[in-house]
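Q: I'm teaching a short session on how sequence maps to structure, and I want students to see two examples side by side rather than one. Could you give me a first protein with its sequence written out and its structure tokens following it? Keep the formatting plain so it prints cleanly on a handout.
A: Of course. Example one:
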Amino acid sequence: MYLTFAWRYFKAKKSANAINIIAWVTVGVIAFATACQILVLSVFNGFEGLVKSLYSSFYTDIKIIPVKGKTFILTTAQIKGLKQQPGVKDISLIAEEKALLQNEDIQTIVYLKGVDENYKQVSGVAGKTIEGKFNTGDVNNPGLILGSGIQNAAAVNIEGRMGASLLTLILPKKSKVSVADPLQSLSEGRVKATGVFAIQQDFDNKYAITNIDFVKQQMGFSADEYSAVEIKLKNTSTLADIQQQLSSLLGNTFKVQSKYEQNTSLYNTMRLEKWAIYAVLTLILFIAAFNMISALTMLVLEKQKDISVLQSMGADKNMILKIFLSEGLLLAGIGAISGVLMALIICFLQIKFHLIKLQGGSFLIDYFPVELQASDFVLVISTVSFIALLASWFPARKASNQLVELR
């Protein structure tokens, strides 16, 4: 019933055209703000999904690192226990350290990651090899897979192009530094460049991968000593439960990290940016709210006689209040529905035809990615409804408090 009154007031001819103009301006601003919020949130979802897919190629489902120091001891029995945990698909043992990479006169710092034969099953790095092969070799003939940024910085050749480069890796030993001869604390090993991977700039400019036995030998690790364990799960939906199981199994000397905990700064930054943009766009809705207050206030003045008639027929203050609240919600509803439809059309066109392009051409894709999520629609519509209800309250309250005055 209240919406019936609201609809009649909305489409009825007003004595002053300004009321109609302000009402339609309000609807237009709400539609624009709603469409903008959905579009921006969908683009952020698209970029977030793209970045997560790139980072998931490098970061495994779960990573185990020491709470203190750089290494830990993991016995054969503990390794077997990890493999037998429900939900664990495969594990890879890691020895990792900063190293100096030399290619003749060119030097660069890399994060050297020594991996075992299971690393291909645990990580997606092997699938991102763009040149050569993902071949880490063995302890006597180690192979090195570099990020594309490191390859360019160190001018490294891969087998098949002018012959593979023989590179020198200088690593710190675990033994104490000798004051008399500090060089005794460093080891020097030769490796052959076998492949290049390209995932994302953060990894491509930083990491190089070889076999774990070579790294452990160069650094003087004991047989059961490692830097990390990386784990692939059968089903990522059980990640939290398995993370808790592994923490209980290993004790408080180990830190068990999920994929997102391995790079919290990235995901927190992306989430913060998304909510910041949402907050800015919500300000547009508050601007529309001022227009709504003006439109409803003028409508209340326009319908003073109607209000008096309703009151004389037995309508109480609560009914008058609800009629004008419904009027505000009607304006917001028309604007929100129009905005949602507009955003859906633009998103589907972008998904289908990639109409809006990214500038620069340096990213993996040349268009803005879009991903629609139901939660965004619920959030935006709830925000519009709340602001409309808040803006409608004051004029509606004024209308409900109006005294009966029939002549």
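Q: Perfect. Now a second example for contrast.
A: Example two:
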Amino acid sequence: MRRFKRARRKFVRLDEAKIREALESYGAFKTDLLLVHSSLSKCGLIEGGPATVINALRGWITERAALALPTHTWSYPDSTGVAPIFDYKSTPSVVGTITNYYWRQAGVVRSQHPSHSIACSGPVAEKLCRDHELRKTPCGAGTPYLSIAEGNASVLMFGATMDSYTLYHTAEDAADVPYLYMPEQVTLRTRGDDDVVRSIQMWRQDMGVARRFAATADWLAEQGLLVRRKLGLGELLFIPSARALHETMVKTMRRDPLFLVDEKARPEVASRLKSN
């Protein structure tokens, strides 16, 4: 099946013009920042690779707006309890080819957070990424992700599903859901501008709790918070207002703290929480 999918992608070729056409079907870009989660291969064979996607995105949002992509590395401690040293100038992103290309480009600023770094270019890049590594959580209070979630920003899932939507963790943090973090902080390491390696204490998200992020797309579309467009073999999921989605999710999870937990995992999570 994987071989069949790879072969099929070769026959669906996308260039910058086709990508721009899909993006412009959403209308003129109106907010101050676009956060993009991406998959290079899901929509087909993109001529020119990651550069083509970035050029299309930049052409759509114009130089007026900032462009941000997550460049997560998940540089967590190994079995011995020692975390690898994260270097924002050299540690590769593990969340897609496009993100790994983007943070290396001239004019792009990358935050120094060891597990959940973000790369940004444009008017607010320096301010957005500054001091990310000093926060106690990867995506919560004081982080670039909360700034995006509460700001005048949009989000695009380029061939990616809502399973990749980092701002859901930001909403979980804001709603203070009881399952989000592991019981104890972990020690992470990051290399700063001065080339000094610093150890920092960080709350790690408990990804042992199964989520249903991807399954929320239809619900979001019904709420008018997400708009779908077909692109080649895949699709684009556009969230015009990150703030509107964030506020909706926080309100929803304050009523139902397990709203984003997978249905099959809910009984176990609920039982564990009661015992604690």
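Q: What should students look for in example two?
A: Point them to this: The radius of gyration is 19 Å. Also worth mentioning: The first strand starts at residue 13 and ends at 14.
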